[in-house]
Amino acid sequence: MAASEAPATTSPAEPRHGRRIFLIWIVLAIVADILIWTLWKPHMPPGDMSTSAEHQQTDIAILALAAAPVMLFVYVFFGYALTNWRHRDGDEDDGPPIFGHTGIQATWIIGTAVVVLSAFVFGTVELIIPAGAGAGEGPLPVWKPSGSNYLQVQVISQQWQFTYRYPQFGGMETTQLLLPVNRPVAFHVTSLDVIHSFWAYQLGVKADANPGVDNVAYTTPQHTGGFTVRCNELCGIWHGAMFGSGRITTTAAFQTWATANERLQRRNGLLAALPPYALSYDPTVIPQMGKVLVKLGITGGAGYYYPPSDPVTP
Ligand SMILES: [Cu+2]
């Protein structure tokens, strides 16, 4: 029985280790979270150029806020154990026996369950609120932005470049991606050959480009400036060269650019030569359209429908 056992041989005033570890940890965790939110968050990818990018930046910051205390707890416990419970010369004591501790076990299970389930709920909500979070939602998007005045932009992928079609401007097509600020955009991403992926990094938009499929992704640009576009799916030997840039402009500048392009393409016969705007295209039109456009004397303007060419050694 306990009565017959010798009293603990450790010092009579054994400190409350649990409370000490907790106090060290809570101070470090609060400082770390304040630094993450104030100093690090503004520099986290992918920036705040669009609504979806800003949501992603906030999500990453919130995950960092949750992860830092967990990581710090491990380090604090490790450091505390290393300094306080290490073997010392002449100390042959095995230490007190270890028993189960219902409180610690319950705290562990409840704490980890709360962290994991919170991440699940948070992730789901963050997909819904910014209308798909900038990701491709397939041909029948479930989460749409409010309102109906979106600018529609078709992203046509082809080995090895992107071209863009604007159905609200007569279906004109261009290799330049211009978007007006503060207007929701619906990207309709498709491919003419193999699987590509449209990744407008600073816009926080990424959508697979599959032949025969209309993959829809939404965002709303909120700052003017340039952004990069990359193919994000290994699509052949020049996949690494399949990148470009886009620009967010004022509404007036966008309107001027788009209407001028539409007028030009109507005049030079390109609009008439292109197949009617559709959500996907039959890949066999590529060589045929190449011949038609060459006959019309329209060359070099855009990439798609021309026979695919190697961008480095054409
Ligand atoms: Cu590609």
Structure summarized in a few sentences:
This protein is of the alpha+beta class.
Question: What does this protein look like?
Answer:
With 314 residues, this protein is α+β, with helices and mostly antiparallel strands. The strands form 2 sheets. Strands 3-2-1-5-8 form a 5-stranded mixed β-sheet. The longest helix is centred in the N-terminal third of the chain and has 34 residues. The N terminus is likely disordered. The protein binds copper (II) ion.
What attributes characterize this protein structure?
10 strands, disordered N terminus, 5-stranded mixed sheet, binds copper (II) ion, 314 residues, alpha+beta
Compressed to H and E, one letter per element, the order equals HHHEEEEEEEEEEHHH
Helix content: 25-40%
Q: Identify every distinct bound molecule in the structure, by name, code or SMILES.
A: copper (II) ion
Rg over C-alpha atoms, rounded to the nearest angstrom: 29 Å
Break the fold down into its secondary structure elements and pairings.
Elements: H1 17-40, H2 51-84, H3 102-128, E1 151-158, E2 161-166, E3 172-174, E4 177-180, E5 185-191, E6 196-200, E7 205-209, E8 215-219, E9 225-231, E10 243-249, H4 251-267, H5 270-273, H6 285-296
Parallel strand pairs: 1-5, 4-10
Antiparallel strand pairs: 1-2, 2-3, 5-8, 6-7, 6-9, 9-10
Helix pairs in contact: 1-2, 2-3
